[in-house]
Amino acid sequence: MSASVNRQIILAARPDGLPKESDFQRVESAIPQPADRQFLVRIIFLSVDPYLRGLMNEDAPYLQPVPLGGVMFGDAVGEVVQSNHPQFGAGEIVVGPFGWQEYAVSDGAGVRKVDPSLAPVSTALGVLGMPGMTAYFGLLDIGKPKRGETVVVSGAAGAVGSLVGQIARVQGCRVVGIAGSEEKVRYVVEELGFDGAINYKNPPGHYVERLRELCPAGVDVYFDNVGGTVSDAVAMLINPRARIVLCGQISQYNQKRLERGPRWLFQLVIKQARAEGFLVWQFADRFAEGIAQMARWLREGKIKYRETVLDGIENAPKAFIGMLTGQNIGKQLVKVGA
Amino acid sequence: MSASVNRQIILAARPDGLPKESDFQRVESAIPQPADRQFLVRIIFLSVDPYLRGLMNEDAPYLQPVPLGGVMFGDAVGEVVQSNHPQFGAGEIVVGPFGWQEYAVSDGAGVRKVDPSLAPVSTALGVLGMPGMTAYFGLLDIGKPKRGETVVVSGAAGAVGSLVGQIARVQGCRVVGIAGSEEKVRYVVEELGFDGAINYKNPPGHYVERLRELCPAGVDVYFDNVGGTVSDAVAMLINPRARIVLCGQISQYNQKRLERGPRWLFQLVIKQARAEGFLVWQFADRFAEGIAQMARWLREGKIKYRETVLDGIENAPKAFIGMLTGQNIGKQLVKVGA
């Protein structure tokens, strides 16, 4: 890596379904200079997250789309290397929407300082960052699990799901995970202490029967990261007054039009149950509380995390596509700098 | 009608899809005698309600199914004509689950006394009864409409929907109805004061565009009685933090298996919105409050109601099938006695 060049990944084409590596392109530009009230960040870790898939479409569902030819959006953690900003000094570690590149200039919008003494700085993109806050507030504030209840989480071995299950265990719940490989099932049960898990890919189907065995008292909270047929199955098992926390629908993000599935909303009527969607940003003014609690659980050993790391900004597209297809366990990161 | 005979309607066959008149059978039996702590009721009005369709299936979704050969379930209002019960006296008007028959014996379970000075006794099955409480608590407690918000209600001219829209108007909301005929559209707009309404049958489809015109500020509360394609359209128009009140899914009740439709739950994620089902019985301990408020609004002229009445217990199946296919405006009743 040359110190005078900023390697970047731009969006070269809008994906048709699942993104391909050719939808991205590597370019080089000069390292930008911060203007007044700006600072320059050298990226250390880049995060690839499911929500970025939506931003690649022309009709991005809730945020501005990435323009064609523009640097891919994405959160990253890095070190301030030069600053004309009164609140950010050289040497500080920060996390923010810096994009898929080695260097970024920022005016501080959406940027948060990271305390490197709390945990490795990469955790600012995972357990102590957006995925951690998604799990913490989504489960506790939307799902409202009570001691002794059964919590099912889909995408159980992912960055958010793996934390949801562990937080639910801390709350005294029975926790059942749904994941896409035997390795993931073993990980959440043997390493994270889930009470059970199923691999939805093998054998395919029969989710309802297999889930019913693991949830003999039904499902009180369903934390949904994936949607689709997996969620259809869980919906058949919900208890009266169940809460379905709609966090993501990753199984649907590469669909070109709305997939069709069984209409099961009447389940919510007869079970007097609720399905509620959320975006983690609605809890932004409480992130300090959430990060403090997650850091406490980390120190106490009540919460564990795993990272899947690819090296080099050039591997960001591969990391992203792998995450969308479930190749990762825990948080998928790209290591950009040292 | 002979005073010594109790004409009854029994369930003769479990319906295959939409019930047919031949699924029911008229029988005659002796007028029953009340035992100790029981009383005899002479039925005046019988109510036919959408939820009864579920009770006709062997796998009734949330209540005991009607047994084959058993008297059809259903709420009715009538007069106590003979009593061995300390709390119910001859001459009193009562409403309860008396079934499709001219006379019923009861021990008082699920029975409520009706004050005939408040309003015509038929209203104990409508605006001052279960449909009224469904509209009142479903809209106010689940939907939580705020002044100036837009409320959309499906099944807008029915027993529940017509009240939902008027209660929403009282709350200062913009109210848009969805109904199945031009007559119903005129009724809710011209007689009930809805701000707008569409006939979803003519022209078919194009719901989204037509609803968008009537809801220029989007949809904050959707009170759903019908489900299916009508709800698919409304879901596309919901605002951030919208509430979808799932009251019924009448478009689905005659399906033999779950119909398939577009998966739109991601709408709830990006709109941070909630869909919540309820059963009116969860508010049973607050019915006195609801009935008092609805009666007040009735007296003040803020709430109007209409009844569609067929005469004679022998017409109960016809009334029920008509209600399931949207033939009625307002509350569908069967007049059984004078």
Give keywords.
homodimer; alpha/beta; Quinone Oxidoreductase, Chain A, domain 1; Rossmann fold; 2 domains; 6-stranded parallel sheet; 26% strand; globular
Task: Describe this protein's structure.
2 copies of one chain form a homodimer. Chain A has 338 residues and is an alpha/beta fold. The first copy, chain A, folds into 2 domains: 5-124 and 307-335, Medium-chain alcohol dehydrogenases, catalytic domain (Quinone Oxidoreductase, Chain A, domain 1); 130-281, Rossmann fold (3-Layer(aba) Sandwich), CATH 3.40.50.720. Chain A is 24% helix and 26% strand. Chain A has helices at residues 52-55, 130-143, 161-170, 182-191, 207-214, 228-235, 265-270, 287-299, 316-324; strands at 5-11, 24-30, 39-47, 76-83, 93-96, 103-106, 112-113, 150-154, 174-179, 196-199, 219-224, 238-246, 260-262, 274-277, 307-311, 331-335. In chain A, the strands form 3 sheets. In chain A, strands 3, 4, 5, 6, 7, 15 and 16 form a 7-stranded mixed β-sheet that branches. In chain A, strands 10-9-8-11-12-14 form a 6-stranded parallel β-sheet, with helices on both faces. In chain A, helix 3 (161-170) links the parallel strand 8 (150-154) and strand 9. In chain A, helix 2 packs across helix 3 (161-170) and helix 2 (130-143) crosses helix 8. The mean pLDDT of chain A is 95. At the A-B interface, strand 13, helix 7 and strand 14 of A face strand 13, helix 7 and strand 14 of B.
